[in-house]
Specification:
With 404 residues, the chain is mainly α. Helix content is 77%, strand content 0%. The protein contains 23 helices and no strands.
Length: 404
């Protein structure tokens, strides 16, 4: 026997869909009625709920329209965020400024506005904003980091150091502040301070490539090439294979006599487009160190062919190779080219004088070279000037007696 409750349910289902089959107890709702129900449900949603949903889906323009209908402080904040997400930074900044004007105690909008100032390189505005935030007694290291960035851009790195230090004091794992301090110490040639702050960062992030790079460069700048090579090699193991890493690794190995490691590094550098010239130059220096003069000469010449700028180093090395081979004329030609490439290089000019002195028999030709060296270099290194003047005096005496 069917209960009155079941009869009511059957009646309702038949009213929704006359095609309802009481024997199978199944209902087939027409699409139109289903859409009508969904529309009804959507109509019951508040503008804020719709705006939030649109924002989450990335439909920022429509989300802004719905947030505008809400009119609350939170909705205005979301409008600013929506403009920023759209890439309309000018409108985002304007919106944030309106919010802060209404409520100067609202910290999240100020923080986000400060980061926007930083992004748009308005460092003076960022400095003023983050100075205010840090004066509120907050212990947020992010505020001090961005203050440091803005101070560094407006007043210089000396003014930024304390802000970065404060960020690290608040959070010893704040890697961006640690990296910023490390770079400042590296540039100011304060290696002990650089090592100290870098090691703090590496304690919590031992594989951070930015910090490992700073540590490698710090060792490199100190001439500690063996340690530098260890850290450059570590960078490569972590897939940080930029050209300068291979180049400095090759140079470090060359300086420590690890010639096979140097060759491997320079061969890897050779595989990177537009780095062939540096690779050939490095290989040439390795072979020169090994006294493989023919190979060194080949790679130095290849470096010249590949490069499109000043070749003074290459020519100096080729001059050195020719000199070691006993070919004074070729050595003189290469050193002359090196000096012509960079006429400010006193030492290249000095080598031209020395080689000309050995190659030419005519004392007047020799004298001309030394006198040109002295007259062309007003700030000639004292020891070079002393040696040149001594040789000039000797040659003048020789010419005097020869002429007489």
């Amino acid at each position: 026997m069917t209960s009155s409750k079941n009869y009511g349910l059957i009646y309702l289902k038949k009213w929704v869909n006359p095609a309802y089959d009481t024997s199978t107890m199944k209902m087939r709702v027409p699409l139109g009625i289903l859409l009508l129900c969904l529309s009804f449900l959507q109509a019951q949603q508040t503008p804020k709920a719709i705006a939030d949903s649109l924002f989450q889906l990335g439909n920022y323009a429509k989300a802004i329209n719905y947030y505008a209908k809400v009119g609350t402080a939170k909705a205005e904040h979301q409008i600013a965020r929506a403009y920023q997400a759209m890439g309309n930074l000018e409108k985002a900044i304007s919106q944030y400024q309106r919010i802060i004007k209404k409520d100067s105690t609202a910290i999240p909008p100020q923080f986000e506005l400060g980061k926007l100032y930083d992004k748009t390189k308005d460092y003076e505005a960022a400095k003023n904003l983050f100075t205010g935030l840090t004066k509120r007694g907050t212990d947020n290291p992010e505020f001090y980091f961005y203050l440091g960035k803005s101070l560094q851009r407006t007043l210089g790195s000396n003014k930024a150091v304390n802000a970065y230090k404060k960020a690290v004091a608040l959070d010893s794992t704040h890697l961006r502040s640690i990296y910023a301090l490390g770079r400042i110490y590296l540039r100011k040639e304060q290696p002990s301070n650089a090592f100290e702050i870098i090691d703090i960062g590496l304690t919590s992030a031992p594989n951070d490539v930015a910090l490992l790079n700073l540590k490698a460069l710090n060792h490199f700048n100190l001439g500690d090439y063996q340690e530098a090579a260890i850290f450059f090699q570590r960078l490569i193991e972590l897939k940080e294979t930029k050209p300068f890493v291979w180049k400095k690794l090759g140079y470090s190995h060359t300086q420590t006599g690890e010639y096979e490691g140097a060759k491997k590094a320079y061969k890897a550098l050779e595989e990177i487009p537009n780095q062939e010239g540096d690779a050939y130059f490095g290989l040439g220096e390795v072979f020169l160190k090994e006294q493989q003069l023919d190979s060194a000469e080949i790679y130095m010449k290849k470096a010249i062919e590949e490069r499109r700028y000043v070749f003074d180093k290459e020519y100096r090395n080729l001059g050195r190779i020719a000199r070691l081979k006993g070919d004074l004329k070729e050595a003189l030609d290469y050193y002359t080219k090196a000096w012509q490439e960079d006429t400010t290089n006193q030492f290249a000019h000095w080598q031209v004088c020395v080689l000309a002195d050995k190659y030419y028999k005519d004392p007047k030709t020799k004298l001309n070279h030394y006198e040109t060296l002295v007259s062309a270099n007003k700030n000639l290194a004292p020891f070079l000037k002393e040696r040149a003047q001594k040789r000039i005096k000797e040659l003048k005496t020789e010419i005097h007696y020869t002429t007489d």
